Amino acid sequence: MADEPKRFVIQKHVRRTDVHFDFMIEQGECLQTWRIDTAPDKFTHDAVNAEKIPDHPLRFLTYEGPVNEGKAAVQIADSGTYRILENNESNITLDMDGKILQGKFSLKHTDNKNWQILPVAP
Known about the structure:
The chain has 122 residues and is mainly β.
C-alpha cells in the first residue's frame, strides 16, 4: 500500500563550470538528496548514476537563488509529488507526478554512496 503523497524537487546547481542536479525527496523534516550529473528529462528513459549527499532542509523544495555563500546558484528543474511504493536498504521505488518525471522510478543502492535512478517499465 502506497504512502500519502510527499513532495520532491530537482534543482539545477551551477557553480562556475560545474553544473549538476540535486534530486531531493521529502522524508519527515528533511529532504533526502542525491547528486546527479544528468538533467531530469534525460533520465526518463535511461538509468543514471547518483551520489547520496547530505540531507537538505525542506526550504529547498521551493528555493531558487544563491547558495554556498554566493559562490553558486540553484533553480528548480522539476518538482511535484511522489508516493513510495517500496522502501528497503537497497531499493526505493517511487511513483512520481512531476512536470517532467511521470511514472515509476527506482533508486537502487549499488555501493557506498552510489545509487542509480532508473525508470520502471509499466
